[in-house]
Structure formats: structure tokens, C-alpha cells
């Protein structure tokens, strides 16, 4: 089905280490031994750029997952995460056009540091940087930052809202034309076009200004992933793009519609936010080959591999529930982790009549994200369906192992999407905002 050229699919490549499946590191073709080598990240970024992806995305976690039961004493996945803000410059230096986005927490950072780091990266990459805003939920992460008590769900979002407000003020503390650098006159900057922000709030008191000129994009692109009630309010007011998990087109449409409605109430337009649900893709020359690849990777899962990840996502111990009972109904106030992920998993369990054990197995494969399996045209069909319906604006693609399965997608699926008029055949802009079709924000 052809669509108007004015609306084309946006694609983000999720750069897991070395893939987005718990067993990715065990895959024979995974670059497991290279995930602390700069060449791994450069290679992933270069392949994504060759495939004309909008961006490469790196997530972050600020602690090892702590065991809550005897079954969790074995570490089933790569237990560490690289600092994405250290890796982005390595990837930027090896590429020219693909966008680069990284996670940074509003719970254990300060607005000035984040504004300065992301602002400088936007300069160094010539306008290709995005910030995935997370509020950080887990107790192990809190203990790594001398936090005697982690913030409640609503408090995390209240702090995050003010954090982003301050960060935007800092990015806007320089006028676009404040930097002169006139050697003849000796004037380097016009101080009348640089202002303090004098922010005094509940969580932050920041004078400013930022000691860095306004960046090429005005502000780096803001991504957000929480879709709980508080997360939707936050996304509607703040995000340029939303990462989300959804198992059905109807779920994805409900989330995007709800956030757009709140955005309109806050004076934003429907076209001001992009929705990019996560999708784990298994591709084969035939559907049978793709399913064989999925079965082979799932066969590498440890018996309790999904339990630790489920605990990490929800920040709640489910070991007291019999594994073959229905997936439990919990009071959301007890889920101090990602509440929207619990709701998605509960809905999936009710819809498909799944036990706790079966949900845990699915979490081990895709962390609750949709899984697409098939030959190149079948994969393109499934991606096209949600996109053409208007439920989503594109996808955050997750890969069984890296860099090989990303290269397969670029070689096999991207040409099909291009043939159908769904995806670009050339980069028409230079910045991440250009790729996503987002306006450069004026200085507030």
C-alpha cells in the first residue's frame, strides 16, 4: 500500500549489547567480545546510517540487578551497561547523518550537567543528538547515589518535569546569534544576548546561563518512554518522540491517541510528537528460516532468564506466586518500577490466557515488546500495517544480535519498505530533527 511521500516511516535502531534478547550474547554471530571496543558501536552506527535510519538509540541502567531469590543468583544476560554519553562521540565521529540518542536519568543527574553534555554533543555531531529522559525507579540504582529512599512514582515525574524545564531554559540562555567571534573587532560574544535563568523551584535552584552557545538543533530532541498516567502527562508536555511497548495495533493507537489529546490540551499539535514502539525482528529468507532463528535463540535462554528481567522492569518480587498460576493482578501502587509495562504484560496475559511462567518466558525474549517474525516482505507487511493505520509513526527496531541482524534488516527489509514508498531513499536533511520532521524550536 503506497502512502503520500509527505509521511514516511521513522526508524530507530536500538543498540543493545550485543543485541536486544537476553540470550543475544550467546549467539554464535554476536559480537559479544567487542562490546567494550569502540569498533562495535561505530559499526552499528555505520550500518544504521547505510540503511538511512533516523537514529541509533542507546539505553542505560545505573546498577547491577540484585538477586531477590536463589533462582536469580545466576546472571543470564550481560550484567553491565556502557555509559552512552561516553559512546555517542565515538559513534558520531564514524558517521555523518544518522541521529544518535542516549538515556540519562533525571533522578541522579543535575540539569546543568545534562544541558551542557547534550548541548556539546549536539555541536560536535552537527545537530544529531537526542536525550531519552528516564526517571529511574530501582532501589539498587538509588543506593549507588547515596539515596536513602528512592522517590515515589509521582515524585519521580514531578522532579523530571522541573528538571526538563530547567534544562530547556539553560539551552535557551544563549540567543542563536549571541556568538560573534569577530577577530577584527575583538568581540567574541554579545553578552546582552546571554541571560541568566534564575530558576527557583521545588527541586532545583539554578542561576545559569549555560556556559555553551545554543546548539545546532536549538535543543536536542527529547525522547520519553513511560506510558503510565504520569508518564503520558509528562510525554504530552515534554517529548518530541515517545518510545513505547505495545503488543497490538489497538494498544499502540490508544497510547498515541491519549498522549496527543493531552498534548492538544497543552497547546501542542498532533504532529509535534513521534511515536516509535519497540519491535524485536527475526528475519529469514523464508518465514520458516526466520522461525528457526527465533527458536534457536530462545533455546539459548537459561531456565530462569526472564525472572531477573521481569523483576528489573517492575521492581517487584513475584517469586511468591506459583509459576503456573495466572499472571497476578497487582495494585499499581505496589509496582514501583515501570507501571505501564506491568499493565501491558497483564493485558497480554489476560488476552492470551498466559501463566506467570509463560509471561516470564516472553519477557526474556522481548522484554514485553512486540516480536515480528518472517521473510522480508512479511516483516514489511507487519510494520506497514500499524504505520499506515496511523497508530504509530515508525519503530524502535530491536535485534536478536548485533551487528549482523541489523545488517540483515538493512539488506533485506529496507529495500521492500522503499519500494512501497514507506521509507526514505536518501537523507534529505542533516539533523535528527530534520530526519524526524520536527521543527527547530525557537528560543523561549
UniProtKB/TrEMBL annotation:
Domain of life: Bacteria
Alphabetical UniProt keywords: Flavoprotein, FMN, Monooxygenase, Oxidoreductase
CDD domains in UniProt: Nitrilotriacetate_monoxgenase
Species assigned in the record: Mesorhizobium retamae
InterPro entries associated with the record: Diverse_substr_monoxygenases, Luciferase-like_dom, Luciferase-like_sf, NTA_MOA
Assigned protein family: Belongs to the NtaA/SnaA/DszA monooxygenase family.
Gene3D superfamilies for the chain: Luciferase-like domain
Pfam families: Bac_luciferase
Protein name as catalogued: LLM class flavin-dependent oxidoreductase
Domain Luciferase-like positions: 42-390
Amino acid at each position: 500500500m503506497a502512502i503520500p511521500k509527505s509521511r514516511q516511516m521513522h526508524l530507530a535502531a536500538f543498540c543493545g549489547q550485543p543485541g536486544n534478547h537476553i540470550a543475544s550474547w550467546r549467539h554464535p554471530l554476536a559480537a559479544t567480545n567487542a562490546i567494550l571496543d569502540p569498533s562495535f558501536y561505530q559499526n552499528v552506527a555505520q550500518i544504521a546510517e547505510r540503511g538511512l535510519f533516523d537514529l541509533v538509540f542507546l539505553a542505560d541502567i545505573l546498577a547491577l540487578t540484585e538477586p531477590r531469590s536463589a533462582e536469580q543468583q545466576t546472571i543470564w544476560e550481560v550484567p553491565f551497561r556502557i555509559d552512552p554519553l561516553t559512546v555517542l562521540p565515538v559513534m558520531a565521529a564514524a558517521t555523518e547523518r544518522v541521529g544518535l540518542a542516549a538515556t540519562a536519568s533525571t533522578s541522579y543527574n543535575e540539569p546543568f550537567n545534562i544541558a551542557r553534555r547534550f548541548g556539546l554533543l549536539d555541536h560536535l555531531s552537527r545537530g544529531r543528538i537526542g536525550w531519552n529522559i528516564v526517571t529511574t525507579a530501582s532501589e539498587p540504582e538509588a543506593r549507588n547515589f547515596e539515596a536513602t529512599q528512592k522517590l515515589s512514582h509521582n515524585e519521580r515525574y514531578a522532579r523530571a518535569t522541573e528538571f526538563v524545564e530547567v534544562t530547556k531554559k539553560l539551552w535557551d540562555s544563549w540567543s542563536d546569534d549571541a556568538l560573534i567571534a569577530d577577530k577584527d573587532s575583538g568581540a567574541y560574544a554579545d553578552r546582552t544576548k546571554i541571560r541568566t535563568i534564575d530558576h527557583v523551584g521545588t527541586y532545583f535552584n539554578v542561576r545559569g546561563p549555560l556556559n555553551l552557545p545554543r546548539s545546532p538543533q536549538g535543543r536536542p530532541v527529547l525522547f520519553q518512554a513511560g506510558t503510565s498516567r504520569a508518564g503520558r502527562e509528562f510525554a504530552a508536555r515534554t517529548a518530541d518522540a515517545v518510545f513505547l511497548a505495545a503488543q497490538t495495533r489497538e494498544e499502540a493507537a490508544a497510547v498515541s491517541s491519549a498522549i496527543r489529546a493531552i498534548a492538544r490540551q497543552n497547546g501542542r499539535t498532533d504532529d509535534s510528537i513521534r511515536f516509535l514502539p519497540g519491535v524485536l525482528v527475526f528475519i529469514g529468507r523464508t518465514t520458516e528460516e526466520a522461525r528457526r532463528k527465533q527458536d534457536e535463540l530462545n533455546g539459548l535462554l537459561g531456565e530462569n532468564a526472564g525472572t531477573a528481567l521481569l523483576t528489573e522492569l517492575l521492581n517487584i518480587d513475584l517469586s511468591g506466586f506459583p509459576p503456573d498460576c495466572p499472571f497476578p493482578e497487582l495494585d499499581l501502587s505496589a509496582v514501583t518500577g515501570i507501571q505501564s509495562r506491568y499493565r501491558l504484560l497483564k493485558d497480554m496475559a489476560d488476552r492470551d490466557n498466559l501463566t506467570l511462567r509463560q509471561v516470564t518466558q516472553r519477557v526474556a525474549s522481548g522484554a514485553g515488546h512486540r516480536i515480528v517474525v518472517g521473510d522480508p516482505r512479511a516483516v514489511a507487511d507487519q510494520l506497514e500495517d500499524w504505520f499506515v493505520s496511523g497508530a504509530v509513526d515508525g519503530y524502535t527496531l530491536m535485534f536478536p544480535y548485533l551487528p549482523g541482524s541489523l545488517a540483515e534488516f538493512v539488506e533485506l527489509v529496507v529495500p521492500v519498505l522503499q519500494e512501497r514508498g514507506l521509507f526514505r531513499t536518501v537523507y534529505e536533511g542533516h539533523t535528527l530533527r530534520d530526519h524526524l520532521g520536527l521543527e527547530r524550536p525557537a528560543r523561549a
